[in-house]
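FAQ: What does a ligand-bound record look like?

Like this one, built around nicotinamide-adenine-dinucleotide:
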Amino acid sequence: MTPTTTKAEPSFYEATQAQYRRAADLIGLDGNVRVILDEPKNVIQVNFPVRMDDGRYRLFQGYRVQHNNILGPYKGGIRYHPDVSMDEVMALAALMTWKCALVGLPLGGAKGGVRIDPSGHSTDELMRVTRRLTHALGTNIGADYDIPAPDMGTSAQTMNWIMDTYVNTVGYAGRNLHRGVVTGKSIACGGSEGREKATGQGLVDLVEEWALLHRLRLSGASFTVQGFGNVGSNAAVLLGAIGARCIAVMDHRGSIANTDGIPLEALRDYVRETGSVAAFPGAEAISVDEFWSVETDIVIPAAVENVIDARVAGLLRAKVVAEGANGPTTPAGDIVLRERGIDVLPDVLANAGGVTVSYFEWSQNRNNERWDLEEVDGRLKRRLLRSYQRVREESERRPCDLRTACYVVALEQIQSAYSERGIFP
Ligand code: NAD
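The answer part, i.e. the structure of the complex:
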């Protein structure tokens, strides 16, 4: 299934750049800072051979885009997906810069990707791809320099392989500290409590706050979710646990619905076994357009970018779109949602839970600490709600939409750092 975009739509990177420029114009961003932020700092492409299970070698292409590091080390996930492109990775890297600045993390923005369909490879092949990628990236990543994390198609297992390869190639000294080269590791390998569910948890914290502000009782409210991977399934299960009803789910192979509520734990087990929600016995199959047209309180896009274009935005019958995915709404889609009075919790805020707990993991690794789940969840919620409030205040003060307000808050942080620091020499 390919993302729905019309020919007239800008590319993902062009769209994120246009959004950045809109916010930059609004705050009268210093021209010198603009010169720097207009382009990513480093764009790395690596081609690396990997031995397949049948003994043949195959060449893979990997990207790492380091967008900005004025606030701290580059930070951002690595995506394994057949549609990965440089345009996409550049957009995702820029989003990471705005996201980290928005939620006040001492981190910059980066993103990586490999053009690969993980479902078409054995675990052994994926391990060799990951280890060769890590070797090819070499010192372009590092615990004080650029810190990858999971994204679409990658997981804690992928991060464990990257960490293991990295610590075994950088030398013995400081070996333990080098574990911080990636976040999103399993707990046994130095990961943090709460990281696996962090993006979904953060999204649910924000949806709860939105519901409070808009007087919607979540207990009994309905929601739909596109993508039932890390972000989508965790968000769905957590919303389900506070009494909301998941009435439709879509993934790359199909869409399903059940107005009485889809049993989410059973769906999770089913997806683990079959790789998709398609043909799940606890719901009926529906078409893609039927999925987007379902009458619901909350829509959670948690898969790929550019899915809510003007046409799909016209189909939605919802109160709020909570963006778990990065860039799910196109600029034209955004306009239609605004015209139709459908609220948006923008990606850079709504899915910032992942990078926030990644930061907690990185801090724990540096200090050889282990925080319990309560501490992680508490710190995450406080940080996200603070940012949400700051964004609402900014959107009322200017006035502007919440997405633009997110960028405004982020740009103000970055502008202060540049103006107080200047540039070398
Ligand atoms: P994942 O690989 O765990 O799951 C992806 C899901 O999307 C799967 O259910 C898959 O079937 C579905 N999907 C893929 N292509 C699709 C298509 N064309 N149409 C419909 N469904 C499709 O990925 P994830 O980690 O959950 O990431 C999902 C989104 O959330 C991405 O945009 C990612 O950048 C963003 N995100 C992830 C994290 C994180 O911590 N993992 C953090 C912030 C943002």
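Follow-up question: can I read anything off the structure? Yes, for example: Residues 1-6 have pLDDT under 50 and may be disordered.
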